[in-house]
Amino acid sequence: MTDDTPKPKSHGRLAVRQTLRPRELMTDTPDLAGVWTAKIITLFPEAFPGVLGESLTGKALSEGKWQLEKIHLRAFGIGKHRNVDDTPAGGGAGMVLRPDVMGEAIDFAQDGTPPNRADWPLVYLSPRGKRFDQATAQRWSKAQGVTMICGRFEGLDDRVLYHYGIEEVSLGDFVLTGGEIAAQAMIDATVRLLPEVLGNAESIEEESHSNGLLEHPQFTKPAEWRGLPIPEVLMSGHHGKIAQWRQKIAEKITKERRPDMWADYAAQNPAKSPKK
C-alpha cells in the first residue's frame, strides 16, 4: 500500500455474528457494537430513515451515535410471490399478517439481542396498545435498543403477540394505514434522549411532559412584534422570578389543556391539589 492509496474508512467497533441472512437483507451498513439500535420489521424499508435522517437525529445517525436496521418482512414471505398475509379466520374484511412469516422475521431480528426485555424491548405498533408517552421514550432510551414491528392490513395474528410476549404501543387514539409513521415518531422521541444527541440536557428537562407538565411558552427577539410585547418578567434578568413565572404558566396551560396530565401531576404534588 503506497502513501497515495486511499485508507479504508473506520466504522468504529463492529459486532460480528453469524446469521442465516436472506439475500434481500444483505447490506453494506456495518453493525456498530455498543450503539443504541432501532430494528424495524416492515413491508416498506424504503420509508426509513425518512425524517429520522434529517436534523439532529440524522446527524447523530451519520455520526454513529445510534443505528437503524431495516428488516424487510417480504423476505420471509411464503411461496413464489412471497405472501405475508391471509384472510381473517372467521371471516371479515381485509387481510391479516401470517404468524409463520412474522415469527421468522422476529427470530431473525432478535438474534443476538439481550433476552431481558428491559434491555431490548420488542414492540408492536398497534392502535389498541398502551399510548406512547415521554416515560416510554425515556425507558427505551436506557435500553440497548428496540425492535419495532410495523403492522399493516387488519393487523397481526394474535398468537405472535402471545408467543413472544410483545409490548403493544399506540401513537394515539387514531388509526394509520401502517406502523411506519408511528415508528419514526417514537424513534425520534427516544433517540433525542440518548447521550450527546441533543447536546443540551437542560432543554430536555424543561420540555413538555418531562416534568409532568406542558412546557411554558417561548419568546425571542424582537422585543415587540405587531403590538405584542415579550412578557416583562422575561426581560427582567431576574432568574428566580423567571423560573416562578414559567412554572406558573406551565401549570395553568396543563390544567386547561390536559386535565388528565394535571390530575397525575397534582396527585404527585399534593400542594398543587385544590383545597377541599
Task: Give a short summary of the structure.
This protein has 276 residues and is α/β, with parallel strands linked by helices. The chain has helices at 55-62, 99-110, 134-141, 158-164, 180-191, 201-205, 239-257, 259-268, and strands at residues 36-42, 66-72, 85-86, 96-97, 122-131, 145-150, 167-170, 224-225, 228-229.
Any overview of this molecule?
α3 packs across α5 (180-191). The chain has eight helices and nine strands. α1 (55-62) links the parallel β1 and β2 (66-72). The chain has a five-stranded parallel beta sheet, with helices on both faces. The longest helix has 19 residues, at 239-257. The model is unreliable at 5-20 (pLDDT under 50). The protein has two domains: 23-191, Alpha/beta knot (3-Layer(aba) Sandwich), CATH 3.40.1280.10; 206-272, Orthogonal Bundle (Trp Operon Repressor, Chain A). It has helices at 55-62, 99-110, 134-141, 158-164, 180-191, 201-205, 239-257, 259-268, and strands at residues 36-42, 66-72, 85-86, 96-97, 122-131, 145-150, 167-170, 224-225, 228-229. The chain is elongated and about 70 Å long. Helix content is 29%, strand content 15%. It is α/β, with parallel strands linked by helices and 276 residues long.
Note the topology.
Blueprint: E1 36-42, H1 55-62, E2 66-72, E3 85-86, E4 96-97, H2 99-110, E5 122-131, H3 134-141, E6 145-150, H4 158-164, E7 167-170, H5 180-191, H6 201-205, E8 224-225, E9 228-229, H7 239-257, H8 259-268
Parallel strand pairs: 1-2, 1-6, 5-6, 5-7
Antiparallel strand pairs: 3-4, 8-9
Helix pairs in contact: 3-5, 7-8
